[in-house]
Amino acid sequence: MRVTVLGVTVDTYTMAETVEKIKLAVRGQTAIRIVTANPEMIYASQYNSDLKNVLNSADIITADGIGVVWAVRQLGAQIKERVTGIDLVQSLFPIANAEKWRIYFLGGRPGVAERAVEEVSSDYPAITFCFNHGYFSLQEEADIIKKITDFKPDVLLVGLGAPRQEFWLEEHPGLAYVGIGVGGSFDALAGTVQRAPKKIQDLHVEWLYRLLKEPWRWKRQSVLPRFLFKVLWQRFKLKSL
Ligand code: UDP
């Protein structure tokens, strides 16, 4: 099911359903683009029609974060769980390993994607990886695109920061069967940024943990109350129709 949250159509797929869609796309050699949408992205898209188009033209938009799950429920739909970029990436590795996929990591500071590949390869040796850091110039971009094309990835994970990664994937179609914007996932896989402990994730306050660890996030996260308010307003308008 798809639910329109502030103009962005969010899918209510579970993690297992999202992984299944990816598996079918790789097996069937069909290209799909996936956005893991958080409240900041959805909020920003109201004031940026290019961003809204890039989000809404994706094949799958997952609810990345409890704020989006809450919004979907407020708007009357059922959704079981959030599907964040890093959780999705980690859920893909077992099937990627079983089916010997080729995965490309694009993004992160120099050295991070490489470390992430080393970490993941030790657990999933049947996956073939290639990588590039995410601080490249326009001139270097052509070489990177050639490197990706030559590698022929099944899955291209792009962690260039939102929303740049969403625009980048939309502007460069056909590089892989599955393209996913994954934010800071390579930092988490490489261990350069610690994720919140599982208990904190389960309490749905990972955003608070990240805010305390990375206080510069307050400006980004200050959008959250405005997002919540706008969703309540959307619900009010829907009910009064
Ligand atoms: N990043 C990048 N190139 C840039 C800017 C950022 O590769 O020019 C990477 C950065 O190193 C980090 C990620 O983008 O790994 C952060 O993305 P975002 O803020 O969307 O992720 P979040 O922390 O919200 O998951």
UniProtKB/TrEMBL annotation:
CDD domains xrefs: Glyco_transf_WecG_TagA (cd06533)
Catalytic activity: UDP-N-acetyl-alpha-D-mannosamine + N-acetyl-alpha-D-glucosaminyl-di-trans,octa-cis-undecaprenyl diphosphate = N-acetyl-beta-D-mannosaminyl-(1->4)-N-acetyl-alpha-D-glucosaminyl di-trans,octa-cis-undecaprenyl diphosphate + UDP + H(+)
EC number(s) reported in the record: 2.4.1.187
Pfam families: Glyco_tran_WecG
Pathway involvement of the protein, from the record: Cell wall biogenesis; teichoic acid biosynthesis
Key words of the record: Cell wall biogenesis/degradation, Glycosyltransferase, Teichoic acid biosynthesis, Transferase
Top EC class for this record: transferase
InterPro entries tied to this protein: TagA_TarA, WecG_TagA_CpsF
GO MF, any single term: N-acetylglucosaminyldiphosphoundecaprenol N-acetyl-beta-D-mannosaminyltransferase activity
GO terms, biological process: cell wall organization; teichoic acid biosynthetic process
The keyword RNA-binding is assigned to this record: no
Keyword Transferase: yes
Function: Catalyzes the conversion of GlcNAc-PP-undecaprenol into ManNAc-GlcNAc-PP-undecaprenol, the first committed lipid intermediate in the de novo synthesis of teichoic acid.
Family, similarity comment: Belongs to the glycosyltransferase 26 family. TagA/TarA subfamily.
UniProt xrefs under HAMAP family: TagA_TarA
Protein name: N-acetylglucosaminyldiphosphoundecaprenol N-acetyl-beta-D-mannosaminyltransferase
The species this protein was found in: Desulfosporosinus acididurans
Organism ancestry: Bacteria, Bacillati, Bacillota, Clostridia, Eubacteriales
Gene from which this protein is expressed: tagA
